[in-house]
Amino acid sequence: MRIHTYAILLLLLSIFPLKLLAQNNAQSSVVDQINLGVKYLSEKEYIKSIEELIEAKEIALRNEWYAQAFNATINIGTNYFLMLDYGEAFRYYLKAYEIAIKHLGKSQEMAVVNNIGILYVEEKDLPKAKESFFKAYEIAKDLDDNEIIGTYGINLALVLNKMGELDQAEKYIEEALPILKIRSNVLLLAKIAKAENLFLREQYVQAERLALDILPQINNLSLINEGATVNDKITLLLLISKIYEKQKQFKKAQKYVLMARAAQLNIEERIESYGSLADLYGETNEFHKAMAYKDSVLLATDSLYAIKNMALFKSEKVKFQIQNYQNELLESKKLLKQEKQFFYTLMFSVILIMGFLLWIYKNNSLKHKQRKRIVELELAKEKSDHLLIEEKHREKVAMELLEKERLKNELDIKNRELTAKAMYLASRNELIEEVVQSLSINTQITTNTPLKNQVNDLKKHLKKDTQWDSFFVHFEELNQGFLDRLRSQHPKLTPNDIRFLTFLYMNLSNKEIASLLNITPESCRKRKERISKKMNVPEGLPLHAYLSAI
After folding, report:
1. Helix 46-62 vs helix 287-440: crossing angle, to nearest 10
2. Could you give the CA distance from residue 396 to residue 442 in angstroms, rounded to a whole number?
3. Based on the number of CB atoms within 10 Å of its own CB, is 25 exposed (0-12), middle (13-18) or buried (19 or more)?
4. Are 189 and 229 in contact (CB under 8 A)?
5. Is 488 a residue whose pLDDT tops 80?
6. How far apart are CA 408 and CA 69, in angstroms?
7. Are 122 and 132 in contact (CB under 8 A)?
8. Which one, of 2, 30, 488, lies nearest residue 270 by Cα?
9. pTM higher than 0.70 for the full model?
10. Whole-angstrom distance, CA of residue 245 vs CA of residue 432
11. Hey, what's the torsion of the CAs at 319, 320, 326, 330, to 10 degrees?
12. CB under 8 Å to 321, separation ≥6 — which residues?
């Protein structure tokens, strides 16, 4: 199966122009020139593209605009890659790598390392490709970008599959699958890599099931680069064919190879398909077809070599034209240098004249400056007066805030005193109640009428105790209008509910309220929940905060 499918997709993503922020007109012009070079590249006008990009690179380096220089350099390398001149592509990628290391950051370094890995894949140097992809993957880890981590992890997994390191490949695939859900194209490659891994492990049934599940998804996938989708489909079809071949289902294998061949438009792309068909027809004893496809393999191979030779010829032609262009650029630089010398001479003369005019101007404008100084002093005085007024206003506001804080502190102190009084009343009544209960169960008292009457008087005293009424009167004096507003907004509240909410408004803890009401803290918590529901307090809003806003 071809491994360069994913590589070309990721490489082409790097040739789209960066949206660089121009700092001035000259820098904006360089950005436009880079974008034009990329446009020519997408249209396969390689000579025009390289000319524009080299000029942009030289200007960017001369002005130390390293982001633009990097973008131009890496796209020059991409031109040579697509022209099949991998040596020249590698040379420009190394230049881009040097710019990234010295002047830019990890993101640019990662992009170059990935493209270098792609070159190694095309040269069939899988150990070097693995090394480059792993470095790009490690940088993505440092940048903590999940999408890039998943993308480069799949690059690495595909190479590891080819090298037979299946456990390591599976590790990167399983890591990538959950984090590539919004990158449909790379997620598809991850699934293809998974199916290939299963195939190489000789788990043919699982590989078949996954591959057939992926196949319908390719037709529905909309990508920026439609050609990459076709390549993915061809890769998957050939994988399915190999699965059926291993299962001795040669007819099915032939069917999927024929589908792959139909999707390959150029004859040189069909070498693998023709080879597979020759082997499969040999297995079914259809030797005349097998021999025909063997001949097709030779024809496609010759065509591929011819294309590579033509590409190399064009590359050398481009190099020659670029060399001429650089010589012209050198002559242009010499002419520019002479123009600069004339410009500097002219500027020096202008500066002398301007200096004389400036001397005259200074003499004539001295009185004007003195008058201006007087006006400035008057404005400064007005500004100082204004600042003084503002400072007095800030002091007044600060005093008002301090007074509010003092009143709030006094209210808090009185509320704590009121709390202490409530605690005292509760403990006193609790003590009287305990005395009454202990006396009531005494058999001697039940037969002693005077003592029994005194016990009944104590019980009446508990019922008629007016201290709690005075407590609520005192609370209303300190927190004027609170109880009225509470009853108005929530008329369904019972007196016991209002009493409980009064303690809560005073910011007493569950334990303190439980002690006042002679209940357990757990009962106190449940009562708070019940009253919150009764008052329709919004979920997530503490009851005390709700009461404070009433």
Report:
1. 50
2. 69
3. exposed
4. no
5. yes
6. 65
7. no
8. 2
9. no
10. 96
11. 150
12. 47, 51
> For residue 550, what are its two tokens?
């009433």
Reported as a pLDDT band with limits 50, 70 and 90, residue 531 is: very high
Say if CB 325 and CB 58 are below 8 A apart. Answer: no
Distance, CA of 433 to CA of 121 (rounded, Å): 92
Interval 129-143: pLDDT, tens: 889 889 988 898 888
Among residues 77, 49, 71, which one has the least CA distance to residue 59? 71
State whether residue 380 is helix, strand or coil.
Answer: helix
- Mean pLDDT, to the nearest integer, of 253-257? 75
Choose among 160, 155, 7, 139: nearest CA to 86. 7
Residue 15 in this model has a pLDDT that exceeds 50: no
Q: How far apart are CA 295 and CA 114, in angstroms?
A: 37
Three-class secondary structure of residue 120 per DSSP: helix
Q: How far apart are CA 243 and CA 211, in angstroms?
A: 9
Task: Report the share of the chain in percent with pLDDT over 90.
Answer: 8
Output the six-digit token pair for 403.
């007074």
Binned at pLDDT 50, 70 and 90, residue 4 comes out as: very low
Closest CA to 8 of 338, 320, 231: 231
Ranking 121-125, 426-430, 509-513 by mean pLDDT, the lowest is 426-430
Give the residue ranges of DSSP H helices in 144-249.
Answer: 146-163, 166-176, 184-200, 204-220, 226-246
**Pair 68, 27: CB distance under 8 Å:** yes
- Spatial distance between the Cα atoms of 173 and 176, rounded to a whole number of angstroms: 5
Q: What is the longest distance spanned by two Cα atoms in the chain?
A: 132
- 3-state secondary structure (DSSP) of residue 203: coil
Question: CA 510 to CA 524: how far, in whole Å?
Answer: 6
Dihedral of CA 388/391/393/396: which sign?
Answer: negative
CA-angle at 436, arms to 432 and 437, nearest 5°: 120
Which pLDDT does position 290 carry in this prediction? Answer: 55
Cα separation, 221 vs 184, in Å, equals 7
| SS3 assignment for 36-77 | HHHHHHHCCCHHHHHHHHHHHHHHHHHCCCHHHHHHHHHHHH
Q: What is the mean pLDDT of residues 254-277?
A: 64
**Number of H helices and number of E strands within the chain?**
23, 0
- Please report the sign of the dihedral spanned by the C-alpha atoms of residue 339, residue 341, residue 342, residue 346: positive
pLDDT band at 268 (very low <50, low <70, confident <90, very high): very low
pLDDT score at 505: 86
**With pLDDT > 70 as the criterion, what percentage of the chain qualifies?**
69
**pLDDT single digits (tens) 74-85:** 999 998 888 878
